[in-house]
Amino acid sequence: MYYVYIISCADNTLYTGITTDIVRRLKEHNNTKLGAKYTKGRGPFTLVYSRRFRNRSNASKEEIRIKRLNRKDKLILIESKKS
Length: 83
What we know:
The chain is α+β, with helices and mostly antiparallel strands. The protein has helices spanning about 20-30, 55-70, 70-80; strands spanning about 1-10, 15-20, 45-55.
């Protein structure tokens, strides 16, 4: 399984990524140098959205779609998942 996720950074920005293990990836963002270049110096991070996919292709397509959204639409997506 693959997951597309959005984390909220301490500077109130959003980062979207893809992984096979959300718990491990969040730990990498928060506690190691294995986090993404964008997230360096922006922690701590909070997972605000995730969605599971059966294959990497579909997950990658969704990651790209989300990354193209503006902040307002990303926040709407996050809120819709909470409901």
